[in-house]
Task: inverse folding
């Protein structure tokens, strides 16, 4: 294991994956990806990331379903989750936050915002003893 | 479907239809009797082939003419019956 | 004296002419231009296969031996026809309502679609018809021999018989088994038979006129000649006179070939009214000259010449070669038309009642096994035709021709008349049951075989059995059953067999209890004029309409099956090809299938698919209670409720669709947003990265490439959206031009790199010239090909494009071998953003099919999903000339 912080990105658009990976890697993060809804929860369990970035519109399974699975697992419930969506309707934001997402961002995002958000999510945990 | 004003006409028509179809049913019975009549005389001296033949072919032809006369009205009855049924459906 | 070769050549020319007539008729019928082919005149003429070579040649011989008795053979059918209103009309109506394919099918359908009865009647028919076919072969070969003998030649008669049989088999196979028609009608055959009917009538009358007016010198002299001849005194035998009249009447409706032309080939009940007088007139004309020819022949020809061939030998003796040739062709016609129709009718019976039931039972899962049922049925028929003619030829060889065959006509009649009690009982008495019918038929068949069929050929039964009875049981002597001797053999058989046959039918029907289907069928047939077609035989089940379509396609053929399903869906107020598998529809479908494979088989196949349980208690109650039945057909209520139900179904469907549409509309904005924002995200992110700088050249180039690709994707999406909105608003302008369908397809396929990994096969009417907007049509084709590339994810993807002209329209089917589209998604797939399953695999915005639908609407056509084809299948219908249609509107 490296001592770098680990981000798991669950997203299906290859170009967006590439952009986020480049962005976070340049900022010193270890980035791993999972490209579909199936097996996403298992991937989280196995790889034990520090932050999860989760797309809402995955081809085979809704991001909300994955989120609710994560939140209902006691071992993962406190893992910070950043939801991404391209639909950008306000009811989506409410739904995501109600379901326990820590942060919600609409595509397209600015790179600075993304970095800020990920850093913000992980800091509180590293500060706790 | 007819207007409510003309039941007598309809009744008469349907009465005619029924009698016509009676005639159609009676024709083969009538024909059978005619064709079986030679049994009565053929054993006697008058029963020559030539004359009996004339009788048989004569009856035969009359039957054909009657059947031809009945054929067109009967077709109309059959069609009317089918139309009634189609209307009702 | 025409040389023997001349006769042979005339014969071959005549056969060729018949081929041409049959072929032309089929062509006309295929183009729908043969209404007169289906008219009353042709129908009447086709009935003339009743007059076989036996009557053409044999009637004169018969008259020379027994005077006027020959006329009974014509009087029976005359009485049946002039009485059409009572019996034949019912028979034809039942035949049409139940899609009856043969006399065996009628009996089988009436008694609960029983395979046992179908098989029994088939067996009986084969028994009774084989000798009759042999008789025809004999007539033809004998008439050849007359010419050959005068020519001083002795041709190999057996070989001649073989070639005649082979030629007839070819003709029957070619025109009788071309397709498995829903109604079993054969235009080509019927046209050829009608032609032959005219030829034999003209030939016989020509000989008659020649004999009466030229040989004898006029009617009066002919009259005198008859009075002077050995047959002047008529020794009428009352029993035979009545019995033979009855026998001929019975045979006329029971003979398989007569049933074929009378009932199966009937396309309109009105034709029966015409035939009711026209066919008796034909018979009248055919027999008017029989006695004069016999009398003159007896007086003028040498005593040793065969009276059965007077029709030929009289003109020959008077050196009238042309007339003799015409007479010969008349006899040839009589023989060939009978053999062809008899072979086809028997083959239908064998395939539907023997082969299909066995095939259905032997298959691992019956109706579900794959493969084309039509091929099985058609091959069975072809083989049966050849087999039947082979049997006829064998019988001809074995019996050695000669006198043994002369009486076979009446023997054959007596055999097939055993069907009569079951037929009449079934049509007029609801109480007749299957057990009764089977017992009656079996008993009748047994008595006929024992007392008439076996004794008919030399050595059929040992002498000791004939005189002493089997094992010394004198009361079983074939010609004196129960010890009553001295009756004419034909009458003896006729009386005992029909008496015991009918007795068994009535008695066993009274003591047995019919099965539900029997009772339903009984009610449907006996009350055919009151209740309209068909008994209610099916309960609504959970069978999938798509499974039914798959099965129906294999029996009826794809085009016909689809037409049936589409019509039914329309009747139910639904779009597309899949109606609800309602009780009504199952009945209708069963009748359609029965028209191709027979009632029993169709019922069994549907039974397998729907899980058997066919009749409910309520249905039975309904049938049993006759008063309820009358009340139930208070017809107008039914109409109204049916209309209401249809409207309700339409409303329900519209409502469901609206609800789904509103959900979709809601999702539409979200979709648009998603489709626009996704590429935008990559573009924004990478452009910020590029702006920040600090990466290598390779990275920079790659990132710029991504931005470029995503920008293109955005543009494409916007183009599609704009395209769709223009199409939807109707503001599109079409660029009409004349172009071949094939050329448009070529362009489209080229635009898709020839389909990529997909193997594309094109066939059908690609040469059709379309007047339409070729670019727009090509756009639809491209979409469908690309769809196949995206979704047909199998090892060897394969797309079959079939074009077919259909009146003013062209139908183009795109069928691939991929997984197809689930029934639930078929209806929504033409809506915007309705992408099948995996959105990334699609790579597009899900607008393709929506655009296709809009384009097809603009082009005056339709696009629909065609279920039940194995893979995904789309059907395009487009007018051949758009402008033309517009102008016509």
Result:
């Amino acid at each position: 294991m490296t001592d770098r912080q680990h981000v798991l990105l669950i997203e299906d658009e290859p170009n967006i994956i590439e952009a986020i990976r480049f962005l976070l890697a340049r900022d010193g993060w270890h980035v791993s990806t999972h490209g579909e809804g199936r097996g996403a929860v298992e991937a989280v369990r196995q790889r034990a990331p520090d932050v999860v970035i989760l797309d809402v519109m995955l081809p085979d399974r809704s991001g909300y379903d994955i989120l609710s699975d994560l939140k209902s697992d006691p071992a993962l419930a406190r893992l910070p989750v950043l939801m991404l969506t391209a639909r950008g309707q306000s009811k989506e934001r409410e739904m995501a936050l109600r379901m326990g997402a820590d942060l919600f961002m609409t595509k397209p995002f600015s790179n600075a915002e993304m970095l800020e958000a990920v850093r913000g999510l992980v800091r509180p945990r590293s500060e706790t003893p | 479907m007819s207007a409510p004003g003309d039941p007598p006409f309809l009744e008469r028509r349907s009465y005619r239809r029924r009698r016509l179809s009676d005639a159609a049913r009676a024709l083969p019975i009538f024909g059978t009797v005619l064709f079986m009549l030679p049994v009565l005389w053929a054993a006697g001296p008058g029963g020559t082939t030539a004359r009996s033949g004339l009788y048989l072919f004569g009856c035969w032809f009359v039957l054909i003419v009657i059947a031809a006369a009945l054929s067109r009205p009967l077709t109309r009855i059959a069609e009317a019956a089918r139309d009634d049924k189609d209307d009702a459906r | 004296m025409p040389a023997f070769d001349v006769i042979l050549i005339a014969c071959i020319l005549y056969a060729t002419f018949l081929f041409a007539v049959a072929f032309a008729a089929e062509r006309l019928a295929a183009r729908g231009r043969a209404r007169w082919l289906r008219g009353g005149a042709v129908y009447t003429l086709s009935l003339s296969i009743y007059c076989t070579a036996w009557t053409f040649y044999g009637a004169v011989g018969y008259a020379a031996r027994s005077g006027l008795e020959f006329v009974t053979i014509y009087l029976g059918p005359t009485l049946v026809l002039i009485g059409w209103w009572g019996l034949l009309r019912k028979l034809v109506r039942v035949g049409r309502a139940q899609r009856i394919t043969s006399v065996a099918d009628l009996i089988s359908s009436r008694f609960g679609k029983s395979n046992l009865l179908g098989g029994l009647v088939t067996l009986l028919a084969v028994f009774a018809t084989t000798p009759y076919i042999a008789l025809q072969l004999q007539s033809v070969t004998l008439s050849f021999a007359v010419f050959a003998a005068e020519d001083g030649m002795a041709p190999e008669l057996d070989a001649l018989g073989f070639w005649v049989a082979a030629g007839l088999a070819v003709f029957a196979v070619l025109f009788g088994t071309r397709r498995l028609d829903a109604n079993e009608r054969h235009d080509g055959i019927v046209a050829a038979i009608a032609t032959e009917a005219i030829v034999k009538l003209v030939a016989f009358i020509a000989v008659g006129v020649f004999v009466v007016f030229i040989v004898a010198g006029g009617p009066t002299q002919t009259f005198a000649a008859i009075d002077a001849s050995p047959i002047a005194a008529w020794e009428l035998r009352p029993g035979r006179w009545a019995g033979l009249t009855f026998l001929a009447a019975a045979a006329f409706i029971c003979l398989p070939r007569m049933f074929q032309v009378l009932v199966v080939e009937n396309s309109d009940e009105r034709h029966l009214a015409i035939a009711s007088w026209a066919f008796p007139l034909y018979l009248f004309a055919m027999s008017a000259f029989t006695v004069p020819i016999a009398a003159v022949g007896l007086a003028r020809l040498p005593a040793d010449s065969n009276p059965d061939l007077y029709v030929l030998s009289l003109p020959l003796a008077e050196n009238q070669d042309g007339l003799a040739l015409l007479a010969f062709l008349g006899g040839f016609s009589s023989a060939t038309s009978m053999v062809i129709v008899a072979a086809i009718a028997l083959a239908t019976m064998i395939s539907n009642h023997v082969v299909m039931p066995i095939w259905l039972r032997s298959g691992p899962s019956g109706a579900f096994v794959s493969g084309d049922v039509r091929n099985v049925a058609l091959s069975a028929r072809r083989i049966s035709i050849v087999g039947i003619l082979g049997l006829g030829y064998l019988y001809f060889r074995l019996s050695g021709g000669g006198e043994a065959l002369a009486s076979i006509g009446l023997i054959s009649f007596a055999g097939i008349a055993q069907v009569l009690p079951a037929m009449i009982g079934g049509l007029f008495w609801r109480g007749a049951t299957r057990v009764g019918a089977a017992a009656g038929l079996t008993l009748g068949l047994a008595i006929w075989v024992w007392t008439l069929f076996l004794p008919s050929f030399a050595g059929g039964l040992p002498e000791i059995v004939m005189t002493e009875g089997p094992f010394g049981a004198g009361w079983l002597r074939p010609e004196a059953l129960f010890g009553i001797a001295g009756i004419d053999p034909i009458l003896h058989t006729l009386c005992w067999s029909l008496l015991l046959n009918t007795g068994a039918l009535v008695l066993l029907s009274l003591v047995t209890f019919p099965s539900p289907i029997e009772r339903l069928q009984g009610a449907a047939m006996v009350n055919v004029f009151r209740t309209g077609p068909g008994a209610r035989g099916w309960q609504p089940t959970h069978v999938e309409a798509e499974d039914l379509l798959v099965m129906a396609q294999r029996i009826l053929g794809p085009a016909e099956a689809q037409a049936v399903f589409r019509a039914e869906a329309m009747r139910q107020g639904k779009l597309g090809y899949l109606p609800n598998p309602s009780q009504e529809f199952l009945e209708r479908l069963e009748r359609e299938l029965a028209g191709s494979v027979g009632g029993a088989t169709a019922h069994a196949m549907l039974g397998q698919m729907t899980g058997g349980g066919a009749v409910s208690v309520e249905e039975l109650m309904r049938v049993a209670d006759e008063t309820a039945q009358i009340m139930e057909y208070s017809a107008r209520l039914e109409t109204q409720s049916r209309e209401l139900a249809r409207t309700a179904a339409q409303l329900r469907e519209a409502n469901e669709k609206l609800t789904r549409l509103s959900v979709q509309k809601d999702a539409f904005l979200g979709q648009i947003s998603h489709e626009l924002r996704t590429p935008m995200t990559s573009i924004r992110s990478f452009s910020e990265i590029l702006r920040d700088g600090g990466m290598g050249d390779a990275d920079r180039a790659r990132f710029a490439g991504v931005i470029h690709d995503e920008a293109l994707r955005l543009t494409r999406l916007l183009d599609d959206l704009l395209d769709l909105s223009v199409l939807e608003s109707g503001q599109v302008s079409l660029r009409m031009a004349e172009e071949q369908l094939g050329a448009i397809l070529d362009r489209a396929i080229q635009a898709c790199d020839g389909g990529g990994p997909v193997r594309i096969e094109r066939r059908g009417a690609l040469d059709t010239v379309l007047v339409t907007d070729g670019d727009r049509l090509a756009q639809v084709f491209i979409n469908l090909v690309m769809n196949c590339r995206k979704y047909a994810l199998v090892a060897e993807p394969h797309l079959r494009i079939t074009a077919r002209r259909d009146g003013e329209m062209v139908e183009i089917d795109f069928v691939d071998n991929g997984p197809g589209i689930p029934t639930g998604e078929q209806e929504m797939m033409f809506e915007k953003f309705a992408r099948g399953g995996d959105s990334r695999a699609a790579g597009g915005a899900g607008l393709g099919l929506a655009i296709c639908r809009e384009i097809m609407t603009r082009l005056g056509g339709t696009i629909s999903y065609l279920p039940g084809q194995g893979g995904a299948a789309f059907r395009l219908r487009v007018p051949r000339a758009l402008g033309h249609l517009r102008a016509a509107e």
Summary: The beta strands of chain C are 737-740, 759-764, 769-772, 798-806, 809-816, 862-865, 873-879. The radius of gyration of chain C is 35 Å. Chain C has four domains: 4-401, 538-614, 640-729, 737-888. Chain C touches chain B through 46 residues (CB under 8 Å).
